[in-house]
Amino acid sequence: MSSFRMPQSLNARLGVETGDAVFRHELLEEQAQSLGRAGRKVEAALAALAGHDGGEGRAALVKAAANAVWEFLVQREVMGFRDRNAVVAQYGIPREVMARIGAR
Fold first, then answer.
1. Which tens digits make up the pLDDT trace of 36-75?
2. Domain coordinates of the chain in residue numbers?
């Protein structure tokens, strides 16, 4: 096998993707899909909590919402997104849910 490698600038100009570029693209795609799934789980848990009439079972809904939010925040932090306040504002996460995960 030849040790000849095409210069990176020529690769970019010709639209040739290296194995590393393909891998990075697929990794970013999977991260985005995973974050999307976690976000939908948060939305569903918060909707169930908001739709509850206040009777029995609220504690279980708060726990489920807290777990979903915690998983979402961890996923975001792994990806380098650390602004928790933006998430709380965007999803309208109640204080009792944030208190459940230990946030101040």
1. 999 999 999 999 999 988 778 999 999 999 999 999 999 9
2. 35-104
d(CA 87, CA 85): 5
Extract the tokens encoding 96. Answer: 């009792």
Taking Cα atoms as reference points, which of 71, 78, 91, 88 lies closest to residue 31?
Answer: 78
d(CA 87, CA 102): 16
User: Hey, what amino acid is at 19?
Assistant: G
Q: What is the pTM of this model?
A: 0.77
Q: Spell out the alpha helix ranges (H) of the chain.
A: 8-14, 19-50, 58-78, 84-91, 95-100
